[in-house]
Amino acid sequence: MNILAVARQKLSDILKADPETINSNFDRLRQDVVNLAAALNAYKIDLASSADVTGNLPVTNLNSGTGATASTAWLGNGTWGAVGTTGAIVMPSIKDCSWIVGRIGTVGLGVGANFASTNVTANPEVTGVFMRASSATSGTSAHASFNNTHCWLDNNPTAIFKIRTGADISSIRLWIGLTAATTPTNADTQASRGCMFRYSTVAGDAGWVGANYDGSTQSVTAKIADIAASTVYLLTIAVSGNGALVTYTIDANPPVTLSTNIATGNAMRILAGIIPQVSSTRNLDIRSEYLEVPVP
After folding, report:
1. What gap in Å lies between CA 61 and CA 51, rounded to an integer?
2. Of 278, 245, 252, 276, which Cα lies nearest the Cα of 133?
3. SS3 of 15, please?
4. Would the pTM of this model clear 0.85, i.e. be above it?
């Protein structure tokens, strides 16, 4: 049934009719249109119905099938193209790296590195998720680190730490990052070369800061992020330019860079530790310490 042809014929008949019959013809045409609409409604296709839609859409229906092959797909720009090129999402490859280490449960898990700790035990609150570095002696550190050094800052390493602050963050020093030292220093200037996050109530830090130390001078960033008790943080230190720039990032806060007093040509390890400044228990919970060194 050609609906348009029927409509044209109906209109032609009306125009040719005598004037006294035009009104009645229009009434019949209106009723015919209603009937046609009802008929068309019965022919609607439900795309969600398995009864209305079966089989495959011919590729020739899409851009005449130009470029359609077994290795192409219909892209959002209205063409057939190879997946992974125009209009496709390309997943990044995993960067080659030398070392990965994580701390899990009471034993710990290390891949490619030995792990050492002092005053670190299973966290009694969430055993097997965090390890607890705890000290109740003023000036005595609790920390976890690699046994050995694994990179130079010249190697563009990235160090990532997931930690949780203790319930009391008064009267403490926190040092977390890359260092040549085996223990955190109980001072506001690092005793060994490194680039580390610091929070020191002695120094009057308003929050987390970054600190580069080249063996003679230490540079410190402005506050990177606030710090609060009993809070989980993801801390990232990324070195770039073969030791020319250190980028400090905490969670989703804007990264802060520091390009001065970077200790190149020195072997580093990762370390996270807390040093109470009073003889009262202070804790640092450590979930993981991760070090990645790109392969040249």
Report:
1. 21
2. 276
3. helix
4. no
User: Is 229 in the same domain as 279?
Assistant: yes
What's the alpha-carbon Rg for the chain, to the nearest Å?
35
Give the closest residue to 240 by CA, choosing from 252, 258, 228: 258
Q: Write down how long the chain is.
A: 296
Cα–Cα nearest to 212, from 187, 233, 189, 240? 189
CB of 265 within 8 A of CB of 179? no
Inter-residue contact 265 to 152 (CB < 8 Å): yes
CA distance 136 to 118: 13
For residues 266 and 193, the answer to whether their CB atoms sit within 8 Å is yes
pLDDT value of position 111: 44
Tens digit of each residue's pLDDT (9 = 90 or more) over 17-63: 555 555 566 566 667 767 767 766 666 777 677 776 677 778 888 88
Name the stretches of the chain with pLDDT < 50. Answer: 1, 85-113
**Calpha distance 288→52 (Å, rounded):** 55
Domain range for residue 80?
58-91
Neighbours of 56 (CB within 10 A): 5
Residues 66 and 49 in one domain: no
Q: Are residues 11 and 124 in the same domain?
A: no
Whether 282 contacts 172, CB under 8 Å: yes
